[in-house]
Design a protein that fits this description.
It contains 9 helices and 14 strands. By secondary structure, the chain is of the alpha+beta class.
């Protein structure tokens, strides 16, 4: 009911009477008043005037189940599960997937107590400032194609940030986005599969949105949309924009069975294309020039002898030779 009340307030140009809300929802005035108070507690500024009704005046970084449901309008993010605090959205999403959660279910949290990064690293996840979400997918593809979903997600995040905040970002293959040479988003994709098929894929996305300072250990390599633009953004609208773009790119990927329709756009937005990178291979690190990706999502690098070598994400890490990118 909270989502319906919020949506009605958002769609109304002026005041919305309590009686009208009661009639629309089939509930009592006391129930409406209770929801109004809950919304106020979540950051909405709602004006109540006797004999006129309620009017949504503004919202102070409002974030929660109702706001997300009002913003998300595609099949990705339906349903959405919001948690004020969670250990990790990926951990929670995997548990929901094991319980049968449907394709497109989105898990969002205001705060993570054990945020997860690539290769077992932790992800700083304070409350009230950033966007932490994990999407459950159930694609009918071979497990060997699953790694490409991370690259699809990166394209979606880049587009979502641009549309919501006007902030240009680049993709650092395979799973980060950067702005000003610093990390603004990390993507962690996890999968449950058998040899011939995938049970589910969970795509975790952590975006530094409105945070204005970082711990010393990451301050030199991390940034946020706020630090890059000077503007604070709606995390719910950002989530909706990313999910809308994700669905568009994902459909193209599934239809083609590869990244062939997305390769050009990915390479155009790739931060380390045509740059010398350090490849951290378990067999020994080396430096090569990154040429971009192919339709399988593999990174192409040029060897000293001029040959092209393909690098598979998940097997190695790539860093810049003078910094993060």
């Amino acid at each position: 009911m909270k989502t319906k009340v919020l949506k009605a307030l958002k769609e109304c140009d002026g005041y919305l009477s309590g009686q009208e809300l009661c009639s629309q929802l089939g509930v009592s005035r006391a129930a409406v008043w209770k929801v109004i108070r809950q919304l106020e507690g979540e950051g909405y500024d709602i004006e109540a005037v006797r004999n006129r009704g309620y009017r949504l005046v503004g919202q102070k970084n409002a974030f929660g189940q109702a706001e997300l449901e009002c913003c998300l309008d595609g099949s990705f993010g339906k349903p959405v599960q919001y948690y004020p605090v969670v250990d990790s959205t990926n951990t929670r999403a995997k548990a929901l997937a094991e319980e049968g959660a449907s394709h497109g279910t989105l898990v969002v949290a205001d705060c993570q107590e054990s945020g997860k990064g690539r290769r077992g690293r932790s992800w700083t996840s304070p409350s009230g400032v950033n966007l932490y979400m994990s999407l459950i997918l159930r694609p009918d593809i071979l497990p060997s194609l699953a790694s490409m979903v991370t690259l699809v997600a990166a394209l979606a995040v880049r587009k979502g940030i641009l549309e919501t905040a006007g902030c240009e970002t680049q993709i650092k293959w395979p799973n980060d986005l950067v702005s000003g040479g610093k990390k603004v988003c990390g993507i962690l994709t996890e999968m449950s599969a058998e040899l011939e098929g995938i049970h589910y894929i969970v795509v975790g996305i952590g975006i530094n949105a409105n945070i204005d300072a970082f711990p010393p250990e990451v301050a030199e390599t991390a940034t946020s949309i706020f630090l890059e633009t000077g503007e604070r953004i709606s995390r719910s609208r950002l989530a909706a924009a990313v999910m809308k773009a994700f669905e568009e790119y994902y459909d193209q990927f599934i239809e083609a069975g590869s990244l062939k329709n997305l390769v050009d756009e990915y390479n155009e937005k790739m931060a380390n294309k045509d740059r010398t990178v350090k490849v951290l291979d378990p067999a020994g690190e080396y430096q090569r020039v990154a040429l971009g990706i192919n339709e399988k999502g593999e990174l192409l690098v040029k060897t000293d002898s001029g040959h092209i070598r393909r690098i598979v994400s998940g097997e190695v890490s790539v860093r810049g030779i003078y910094g993060y990118v």
